[in-house]
Amino acid sequence: MNTGANIVTCPYCDRGFKNTRALGVHRASQHPVENNELIVTERVKVRWNIEHLRMLAAAEARAPATIKFMNQYLVENGGTGRNLESIKKQRQKAEYKRLVEEFRQGQGNDFSPPVQVIPTGQGNAAEKTTLPEAHCNGDEAFNDQIEEHVENGRVNLKEQLELDLRVLRNNLAIKGVKHLARAVEKALSGEDTEPHLEQWLRTAFPQLQQARNHRNGSPMEPQVLSRRKQRQRDYQEVQKLWRKNMSKAAGKVLDGDSSSGPHPDLDTQERFWRPIFEERNPTIRSEGAPAKHFFEEICSPLTLEELKSNKPGSKSAAGPDGLRASDWVNGVADWVKMTIFHIFQHTGRVPAQWRNSRTILIPKESGTMDPAKFRPISIASVILRHYHKVLSSRLLDLPLLDKRQRAFIKADGLADNVFVLSATIADARVRMKELHVAAIDVRKAFDTVSHEAIERVMNGKGLPSRFVNYVMNMYRTSSTVIEVNGETSQPIFPGQGVRQGDPLSSFIFNLIIDDVLKQIPAECGYVLNGRLINALAFADDLVIIASSTQGLQMILDRVVTCLAQHGLQPMPSKCRSMSLVPSGREKKMKIITEPTFTIAGANITQMGVNDTWNHLGVSFGHRGPTAPAVEMEDLLERVTKAPLKPQQRLTILRVFLIPRFIHRLVFGISTHGMLRRLDKTVRKSVRTWLFLPKDIPTAFIHTSIQEGGLGVMSFESRIPEMTRTRLQNLTLSDFPVAREIPTHEWGISRLKWCDLAKIKNNQWARKLYSSVDGKELREARQSQLSTSWVSDPFVIIPAREYVQNVRTRINALPSRMRTTRGARRVSQPVMCRAECGEQETTAHIIQRCLRTHGGRVLRHDAIVNRTSELLTNCGYKVEREKRYETSEGARKPDIVAAKDGQVSIIDVQIVSGGPPLRELHAAKRQKYANNGDLIRSIAQRFHCEPSNVAVSTVTITWRGIWCGESDKDLCSLGLSRKSLRGLTTRVLQGSHINFNRFNSMTTVARHGVWPWRRRAARSLPRDLGTPTC
């Protein structure tokens, strides 16, 4: 029994605990800031870590040969902060001497070669850890990699143009080709081609409307409408926008109409952006060796495969010339496109009409009035964007970029960076190793990079002079205009920056950041899995990593200097740093909260215990990625209140809303409980939109459309699978550090979390088919016709009918058996109200009840008539329900279609989904195929051989599930699945009409007049299946 003397009291909240361990757990969870301050990290004797040893060895290797007192020199220039005696002892060790020698061998290169160091966390250590080079593109390796490219030689571009000219002269009848041929002749003779290329565009696309460079009148004052008329107007606007641009309509519903809110006008935006664009940014020139030019294949003629694989998206915005992407991609022959691009390559120039751009401003924050919080996106002609996309693809295949730059490459670079940073923080905490991280924000990096620096870097990388001259000529001669609310500014001639939105700009900017990464000291960094990592880059998002405060500050100073050489400046107010320092005695990790680092003369904000920062869309704290904040309820409420139809709501949910959170949930620290709660929230809204009861199978919502469900993604099952896939794909990465993350302790723990999911994504279908309501949907995957109507984003099906179809599909219609399910009492009647003697299930009402007999006939005839119409449109001679006398009795097939000596007998049946549909199809087919008299009579009537008479069926369940054989047979007759989709919805519509007919009638069975249905019959015909609730 505990006494009061044994109780330990928390000094912050006076809560009592049995022992100090319980108090420590409480203090860490409830008072993290105070608990962090109690951790003591000061040591009487400071130990050497790997980074300090490498910094010291690098300083000695780079020291001038004239230094006489090396120990004193290293105290002053080593950057480790150690005293003279400590440095003396380290210099006497053989491992240190080996480190110095290795740095000296790599002194002639910009990058240090692979080295070996001794981990000194425990003083003396015998085990050696191999640290590969931190940089992946040393000069020697770079030269080795380009030799094979130089040996490949080049293709003569002039000969290719001459070949193009012969092709053009053979096709002068095509509109505009004569102007293009004239442009090729001018290109071969070295004359100006621009007038002829522009004339080709005007001739090939006479409907183009040039962008007018004037200001439109002020917008009309909004009308004051009644609430009813305002709702009607909102509905019309949303529906019109949905038909024009589904993505914009979804954004308007989810985020509101950004164009209707307050925002800066054109004059305000132009006053802010014009000086930035037009400034000529001088840079600090760095001395270097004369440029050597390689990679001449960049300027070789294009291939058809390159042209097709890099075509712009059909929905890409038009440039100032007004040419739409769809018109360029579909309206211009590929050989014409290649000829135009070959002219660009040969002359090194693009017509001004195509190289000029229009700049739109995208707000970074909703409702902001600050022009600095807008992102400028330049949109040039789609012709130029297509050409630059081909060039960018060629450049990405060359060994030019540092592996630490993961943006705009042919890899999952975002996953590489996020997972590496997450594993690094986790590794430091588990192994109690010192870690310092800094996130650098570059001020308007894309808009202020120096053109001189771009030219210098491209030449330094060995790019062909023809390509370099083309890029620089484009930047120096092109102009842009700012567009705001349909108004355009006067032309602006940029003096700095690259175009955001141009496919080539991303690679050019990567070259600039690559030059910055090249200057980071190779001796600084953190050892992860035996590899040194000191920087992660994703375009202008730089994360610097080091194992000591001195090492991180050294990297920061070097980065600032290199950025200045390219006309770039950091923004200290947006930079963040985090420091984790272990306390060896307490076995705890302390987060340093005092300002420790500076950049460009200003302190960097130091992250505390409760602070987080955003990196690549993921929130990071001192423990790594944090739990993502997902505000699903508010967005779902907006979708519910928006003037939308149910199909549109489902499309927004599947295509736009749920994908918003996938990135944060995959890379953040999600819990299975949180994912289940998100699924419940989504299912509640879906039931509301489609008027579905609460007891429908949960699996119906999450099963894929192809398997009979609604195709709404389940967070609980899908997020763990996505996380596992992204982690496992790291093994294929060309980034060595990322490649080993799946085998790291952190990666293994994340994979184990993925395995704890209670349900896998491929189990939803089985769960649906095992339910009472979903078992008849088990054959949905056999035919696309069964499910293609479910995805109806353009509202081909009326909204009310769509809801009815979904309710019919999942057996959600309120029959007696359905409404009393789960809480049925003895006094509650469940027999059919028409006194058929059977239980009142939905299947009975629609398929067997006497009240719906006439409706079943009408439904059957509607399918027969529609199928006959489709066959007639395909050129068949069709007879419907003609009577044939045979030895087995009269036979009256629904459809007999003849064409080109081939005859098809087609019989329609709408069945229940109990037995396998293939058996029902075969049984109906044999009824006619085994009747020789019928086959001979039909062959004689249509003047063909009996062997040319085929028999098939249209077998569909009352829930709209097709037999796969019926689908294939009808398609073999030339009918398209697009036209046959209407048969599915017509069956569902007929089934629902039958249900409504049943409820509106009062007829009861008179068994003397209805002799073929026994009052107490419980068995059912084989082709009608079994009753369902």
From TrEMBL:
Location of region: Disordered: 211-232
GO molecular function: zinc ion binding
CDD domains, per database record: RT_nLTR_like
Residues covered by the C2H2-type domain: 8-36
Keyword annotations of the record: Metal-binding, Zinc, Zinc-finger
Domain Reverse transcriptase: 343-604
GO terms classed as biological process: DNA biosynthetic process
Keyword Chloroplast: no
UniProt-recorded name of the protein: Reverse transcriptase domain-containing protein
Organism of this sequence: Bracon brevicornis
